[in-house]
Structure formats: C-alpha cells, structure tokens
Batch of 3 targets.
Target 1
Amino acid sequence: MTTSIILKKLQKLVASSNPDVALDNKPKELTTGGEGYKVVLFNDEVHSVDQVVMQLLRALRCSVDTAVEIMWRAHSRGRAIVTISDHDEAHRVTGILREIALKVTVEHV
C-alpha cells in the first residue's frame, strides 16, 4: 500500500461538498447473538494519516476506502466507531490498533 493511494482517497473524501455524506454511518457489524461490543477510535495529533489507515487495514482486513473513511471520521469528529462485533473480535481489533498506541476503547452495546 502506498501513501499516494491513501492520499488520493483522502483527497476525494475531503473534496466532496459535505464529507459526512461520503461516510457510511453504519459501522461494520457482525452477528453477536444480542451481545455486542463497539471499538471506538479517537483522534490524536501523534499518528500520521498513513499510520492510522495502515493499522485499520491490518485490524479490520477492510478496503482502503473503509479505512480512510474511519480515519477521517475520527479526525473530523474526534472519534469513530471502528466495528461492532462479539467480544473476542472487538478485543482482537483493539489489540492490533493499540500496537502503535492508537487510542481506542471497547464499549458494551
């Protein structure tokens, strides 16, 4: 994954007349049998766009578009729901995001 691809996707998102329109308001969800946990990513001024997007790609195994959208939501709103899943998956994702000291929480929903 190159920085230029990430930047192009971010530029496209930011260039839209209303960046929130480009964001899918529904987080990735897994069937949890009524129990669920959401992983929330918080904005910081320490990590680069590339670092956050790359770590989201590793943690979620998602598309670049999805990772950029989550990163942008956290950057522009201060926080973003990364995923809603079962306990084990939420903690697996959180562990990967924390490998580079991203600020994340797991909340029961």
Note: The helical segments are 3-15, 49-60, 64-77, 87-98.
Target 2
Amino acid sequence: MRTSDFPVQVRLTKAEHAHFIEQVEMSGMSISLFLRKLIEGVQMKPRVPEPYYEVQGLAATITNDVKDIARIARASHSVDIEQIKALQTMVDKLYEAVMDLR
C-alpha cells in the first residue's frame, strides 16, 4: 500500500480546473494517480472506450471459431453449413460493432 506523506495543493482558474478534470476523466485514473504519472513523465493517453472491448471479444471468438471449423474440415473433409452460417452472423455483428466505433 502506498503511503503519501506530502499533500499538494494547487490553485487553478475555473477554466484550468475544468480542463484538468476533463483530462483526468479521459484517462480513467484518480486525480492522485494522474498527477503521479505526470510527475513520472508518463505520456497520458485517453482510456480505451468500452465498445472497443466488445469488438475485441467478437474478433477473438470469430478467430477461434474459424480455427475450429478449419480443424474439423481438414479431419472430416467436409464443412457443416450451420457452423458457417453462425460464423457469418458473428462476422456481421463484428462489422456492425466496428462501424459503431466510428
């Protein structure tokens, strides 16, 4: 657990405070952590939007399903059309999710 012995008080204008809070919220960090990272010289980045994780999950699922279908197709020399239809539905969902990120 971190022990912080030295509190810091900073005076900001209303505009500076609004901008500061906006930056902290975009980072997804607490004010204390945000300031510590700035002091350390870390380049701040906005937090990744939640829909990104949905897209990432769909892409991973599709990748795994394609690998499974290919493995089964190689072994049996045939492809189950229902699996292909299910895969197409997932690809459509992925496409919609990617378009929503724009």
Note: The longest helix spans residues 50-76.
Target 3
Amino acid sequence: MPLVRRGTATTIRVVKFRKESVVVVERKKALLLGVGLDNEDGEVRVTRGRDFHLVGGSHETHALMQEKCIKFTEKLDERGKQLAELETGEFLDLAAECKMNVLSKSKRTERGE
C-alpha cells in the first residue's frame, strides 16, 4: 500500500543591523510524499506535482497515487487553500475524501514506533 505523509516547516530569523532589527519570515511549505513499495519490474517511477512527490511502486500503484494526489490538489483548489495552510484535522479529512493511506504521528504511536 502506498503511504502519504505531509511535512511542514517554518523558519523565523531576526537579522540585526546597526541600530535596527529586521524580522525575516520564511514561507511555510508543505509537501505530500507518496512511496510505492510493490515494484517488481525494475522500473523507476517518479512524479512531481505542485504539492506532491511520488516515488516507486508498480505501474498500477504509481498511477493510483497520481490519481489521488491530483484529486487532493483539485479539492485544495476548490477550497481556495494551499497545502501549508491546512490544519491537521482538515488535512486528514481531505485525505480521507481522496481515499489516501496517511502515515501520521498518531498511527506511528499506536504501532509503538
């Protein structure tokens, strides 16, 4: 089964010049990462989109991951939002609507990781 994980990062730096400080806020970024693990034909499959990177999988699995990520991106556009703007619950709801298998901290904790 392909897994999708969302990651975000925000950095705030304070840069000091002689008598004044300037606050530099770097943009918050998010990306869906899809990994297919059922490749047996030796092909390397990689797809990159605005909000996602997909790697590996059989032809069928990779195509399925592409379809789900495109649907996810379309739903984001319908809501007028960027991936980095989503709260965790909203992200999980949207991923469920697209029938994505999501790896989250809560699932890893339940499995004892």
Note: The two ends are 19 Å apart (CA to CA).
